[in-house]
Amino acid sequence: MLTRRNLALTxxxxxxxxxxxxxxAPIRMLVPWGxxxxxxxxxxxxxxxxxxxxxxxxVVENRAGAGGVLGAQAMLSAxxxxxxxxxxxxxVFRQPLLNSRALFDPLTDFSYIIHITGYLFGTIVRPDxxxxxxxELIAHARANPGRLNYGTPGVGTSLHLTMxxxxxxxxxxxxxxxxxxxxxxxxxxxxxQIEILADSSAWAPMALEGRVRVLAQWTEERAKRFPDxxxxxxxxxxxxxxxxxGLAGPRGMDPGVVxxxxxxxxxxTMDPSHIAILDRFDxxxxxxxxxxxxxxxxxxxxDERALIERLGLRLS
Length: 316
Known about the structure:
The chain is α/β, with parallel strands linked by helices. Helix content is 41%, strand content 18%. Helix 2 packs across helix 9 (255-269) and helix 2 (38-54) packs antiparallel against helix 10 (272-280).
């Protein structure tokens, strides 16, 4: 039987057992791309909006290189306490499919939080290039096999695989030059080290100023800011590539913590300040909740395996 003394002692003990509310410290956001590119700018706007909702700073930490998988690698050794999370590019799902020694299993090694958005990709050349559309570029590549170099943000990225898809369907050969992000990629294009840039829409301001030429957009429909630029499909190449992505953390995160993060980033995605950045890069919200995101990852693994096998790609 409980006595008044026992009840009093129990009441005194309860505060000591209570856990501090999450979050009570800054959250680290791993962004596996270089500073200044499309993803970096977008993720910083998203994290700023989420910080206001979480009551703690969400601090971006760039982990550029290796085709966008360094952030996922870092999460393998991180504590699943909700204070280390990261952007999950689609290249994370390709890594174990392209390499004989998988660094991780995307289906079991991460806690998926929320799906956010996708990119506007494009095929870009210098304004003095001799090609004004994809047909002219492909004709030149066919006449000069292996002579054209194209740059992407890394091996195994959607940009790399899509350029190889284009080559496979057109019966051409061109040479892939991987970089660590847009800054290096665009510098190589403007400097003449590569003839073609395949990247997300950090190139858009330069295209509007006439400093680069967009031969094709890789989206389903033409972007509002580039109504005169055809899509790949409109250029006779039946491919759509947007590389959608979301957020995840280490394996074993508490479902309650995942829910807090999901709700904060869901609201942050639709914050006017973040929507303005999406509009700036011709991106759009592609929200999926935690369960739908997990289902998306499973289907993506199936689809990517089929694509990689069809292209005959293998890195190691």
